[in-house]
Amino acid sequence: MVKGYWIARIDVHNPDGYKEYVAQNGAVFAKYGGKFLVRAGRHVAKEGSSRTRNVVIEFKDYETAIACYNSPEYVRLVALRSPHSEGDLVIIEGYDGPQPGA
Description:
The chain is of the alpha+beta class. It has 3 helices and 4 strands. It has a 4-stranded antiparallel β-sheet with strand order 2-3-1-4, with helices on one face. α1 (15-31) runs antiparallel to α3 (72-81). The longest helix has 17 residues, at 15-31. The chain is globular. The chain starts with a strand and ends in a 9-residue tail after the last strand.
């Protein structure tokens, strides 16, 4: 079974307002087994556009990643986050096939 991922790129324009979203999202991600792989670390944009904050969250599978986003708990958090940030979020199925050179 391949994993599912959230890939988010965010610009926060009101850090004080965004703090409440950050304070509350951990419980929702834990409920769905979400694990942060990337959480706003250093980055460099080599191609295309960029945002100031990048996040990758891993879930046990694609269906769980979708269920977390659509859950009433996370829908509430989107409403909490939205006035304080702008971003892009993609939910994507992982890949478990052959690798180049393998």
